[in-house]
Amino acid sequence: MNSSHRKVLTSLASLPVNEFKTHSQKVNPGDVFVCRQGLTWDSHLSAQDAVERGACGVIANRPLNLSVPCMVTPSHSTSVSLINQYYAYPQDQIKHIGVTGTNGKTTVAYCLNQLLNLRGKSAYTGTLGSSFDDVYYPLDNTTPDAITLLNLFHAMEKCGVSHHVMEVSSHALSQDRVTHIDFDIVIITNIGSDHLDYHKHREDYIQAKLRLIDRLKPGGVAIVNLDDEQSLSVIERCRSRCEVISFSCVDDGADLFASKVLSTCSGSQFNLNYQGTEYQVISSLPFFFNVENSLAIIASMLGLGMPIKEVLGLLELMQPAPGRSEVYPLSNGATVILDYAHNYDSLSNLYRNVLEHKTGKVVTVIGVTGERLADADDIGELCFEHSDQLVLTTDNPLGVNQEDLFKALTSKLPLNSNKASACIEDRLLAIKAAITEIQSGDVLLLCGKGHEKYQYITSNKNDAKPYVGDLDALKIAVEAIGLQVVSGLAESEESADLTVK
What we know:
Elements: H1 3-13, E1 20-21, E2 32-34, H2 47-52, E3 57-60, E4 70-72, H3 76-86, E5 95-100, H4 105-116, E6 122-126, E7 129-132, E8 135-137, H5 146-158, E9 163-167, H6 170-174, E10 183-188, H7 196-199, H8 202-210, E11 216-225, H9 231-238, E12 243-248, E13 256-264, E14 267-274, E15 277-283, H10 289-303, H11 308-315, E16 326-329, E17 335-339, H12 344-357, E18 362-366, H13 376-386, E19 389-392, H14 402-410, E20 420-423, H15 427-435, E21 443-447, E22 454-455, E23 465-466, H16 470-480, E24 499-500
Parallel strand pairs: 1-2, 2-3, 3-4, 5-9, 5-10, 6-9, 8-24, 10-11, 11-12, 12-13, 17-21, 18-19, 18-21, 19-20
Antiparallel strand pairs: 6-7, 7-8, 13-14, 14-15, 16-17, 22-23
Helix pairs in contact: 1-3, 4-10, 10-11, 12-13, 13-14, 15-16
């Protein structure tokens, strides 16, 4: 270590450091603000704001005239490395399971963490935020930046977390946000097509996902879905690098093979063939696509060295992730399904399963985010094709005019059709309108928002507009017309018995 690096560490040791922050507006007294020259903003310009908010020090990549110590490093990458040294590499004390894929990341990561907490102390980081030791930490991104992760790992280490299950997005892999983590297990649920606004073409997206395999520890384990069309690419990337545990609902040569699958809106059961023995498996997760997710979870626990009988016993206790295929029967005989499905692949999966079980009509409430403007025409066409009635609404416009999003969603819809469709910008009003249309045997799909209780109207994700959330909107809409939810409304992660930090 050279003298300038040692000087930074000595300065940090003399400060009453609470956490390290990269956004000046989120600085609390005792935090150290870390500057970075980004693509669109140089946060060195926010250093004075951070100091005024109580920062006890600043790490910068150039000298700044401030009233608190300013520690200068040659690059943001060096800053991250020095913070890692200051914390004494807390991530090394934890077993890490990374989950990536176009669909299923949240369900697999959240549910796997749920089961690991039944036999120890585990942590989750992903779309639903980060949670461990009965504390919930809101996050801006599915996979946080490196400094936020180091803060979390430091907190995890202090409270004795042994396992950490995290969703790893294609953005995070492209931007090297997880290069300081060595994973014990990686899970590739599937690789479809998504985020082409960022990756520009599908091959770049695929290669970003495959980079997670490169982050495996020596002797690590990769969990691979043989039913995914990219499984050969995944297995080739694993060759000579790690052990592979494969799963399938089609290929009986997989390490874990599910046969005699029976899936419904309320759960699933199947026979699991593993190492020459057949086991009967019962899961509370609805629909066929969650059988694949259940197999990924089972494979991961086996990869951690747990006996198969213990794994299957824990699986029966598994509950769905908030906002993922949550099923709510109504007192009039209709059913509401709240699901985060928001891209073409996930919506196709959802419709394929719902249409298999429906007895009445299907009504869909959905919007499209500003990031998916280019995909909106195909998404609108898909939803119209599979719905008897379609209500289009708002879902994180991110600075795109909502009327432009509606135009894109409806651009491929036939002008003359017997099917009813409507564009209602207020999402609560859209859900109220849809509820009045469903009767016994009908299914209402509330798609896109899942657990979210905010709307990103502008492109600034620090400027979220509060939204009641689809779950509470459903409650309001149902009560307004005198109906009831037969099984009671489930609590989401945010409203569970957790301390929010």
